[in-house]
Amino acid sequence: MPLARGHFPAARIAHVTGTRHRNIRRTRHRNIRRTRHRNIRRTRHRNIRRTRHRIRRIHASYATAAMASTAVVTGGRGFIASHLLPALVSSGWDVRTCGRRPRPDDLAGEIGYCQVDLADSSADLAPVVDGVSHVFHLAGASSSRSSEDEMFRNNVDATAHLLDAVSAAGVEVVVHMSSTSIYGEDEQLPSPVPETVQPAPSRAYGKAKWQTEQVVWRAVEAGLPAVVLRPVSVHGAGATKLLASAMLDVAIERYAGLGTVVVGPTPVEQRLLHVDDVVAATLYLADHAPARGRAFNLAMPHYPSSHEVAALLADELGLGFEVVDDADCGPSTEERAAARVRMLAEGMTDDILFTPERFRFMRKANRNNRLDLGALLGTGFRLGQTDLKDAVAELGAWYGERRWIL
Ligand SMILES: NC(=O)c1ccc[n+]([C@@H]2O[C@H](COP(=O)([O-])OP(=O)(O)OC[C@H]3O[C@@H](n4cnc5c(N)ncnc54)[C@H](OP(=O)(O)O)[C@@H]3O)[C@@H](O)[C@H]2O)c1
To answer: Could you tell me the distance, in angstroms and rounded to a whole number, from the CA of residue 77 to the centre of ligand 1?
Structure first.
């Protein structure tokens, strides 16, 4: 039974009342902070939706500007394709796609689908390419979820097989999605790196992508009209690696009850690109005649530091941010993994790649980080999504709504 006020000596009453007041004040302040944070996020998300609506209209104009109307997008279940396909459909293109698995249930009805393994040399690819004017070749395997053999098979072999079929079908243009990983990190290349440099890939993924490009260049020499894009790390709704993994890292720490994201003292320069800009560049360059037979670096024109990116991620998820002296700061792999298991048990999906090393993608310094964007900008193309804060807010909302993070 609660004691009446009069039963406490005056000092005790003052103490109890003081504590109560302090607690009430703290709760009030916390609620105010939370409401303010929620309101800021709401306003930010509303502004982002407006900006993205405007950018989508610009992208749509790239897609509608292209007169030809029948396209195949390979790797249709993939992250970038999941943005390119709707852009084409909404602009009235006749579109088909392909993948190794059965037709996905959530693929829009108007999109044709072929189940095929492009690397299987016995597979008939005529249904994939016959009657098509544009080939957007996005299928491929990256390092995070594939063995080295798979990377070569699903990039090099698949592209060689596809291009044989494409040559026979006589398409108007092939846009091949390569990667800046072909430049490598061991050898110092000219900075910023121009597309004309001799690539020196250092890891298996970069080697596979460079070997794949050589398949494309041989076909170009034989007369294939092709454009090669070399994007850096791409982020956006539906991405499962890189920036997405870093956001999962922050979400794990929030879930574990940590109030501040701590990072080591040395910032690492990042290079990033929004998926909307990949889609826009793909559509723009496909029908830009002087782009044929050329390669294009694709990246944001500025290079945020790992500290900037981590601070934005922390802020988006309502955590503080601090740079500390210890390069190995933060929770251990085991602690993070255990928190993630609890999140999965509570309904989080496992779509985003969990990396044993915290903030793995932001730790790698790359001596060939800076890219020459002169070729891209010289075509008249302009990037539309260069505000990282907006992009991070968009990711936070998208992943949160789908419970890719809790
Ligand atoms: N995401 C990035 O940050 C980034 C950066 C630079 C370059 N790129 C390049 O851009 C392209 C698209 O990237 P993404 O992130 O969207 O890739 P993704 O999500 O991994 O999708 C790739 C798709 O390729 C399909 N695929 C793989 N091997 C195949 C084969 N043998 N036959 C048919 N389909 C096959 C897979 O579909 P199924 O499993 O259904 O067969 C998968 O859905 C890739 O070539 C990648 O190297 C990506």
So the answer is: 8
CATH number at residue 212: 3.40.50.720
**Ligand 1 mutation pick, 100, 174, 227, max ligand atoms within 8 A of CB:** 100
Residue 394 inside a domain? The answer is no
State in Å: Cα 114 to ligand 1 middle.
Answer: 16
Nearest-angstrom CA–CA distance, 67 and 136: 16
Token digits of residue 261: 């994201």
Q: How many domains does the chain have?
A: 1
Q: pLDDT tens-digit profile of 36-93?
A: 556 555 655 555 555 555 555 555 556 555 554 899 999 999 999 999 999 999 989 9
Report yes or no on 184 lying in a domain: yes
Quote the domain boundaries for residue 174: 43-237+272-302+367-385
If 0-12 CB within 10 Å is exposed, 13-18 middle and 19+ buried, where does residue 104 land? middle
State pLDDT tens for residues 178-201: 999 999 999 999 999 999 999 999
Of residues 375, 364, 231, the one with CA closest to residue 299? 231
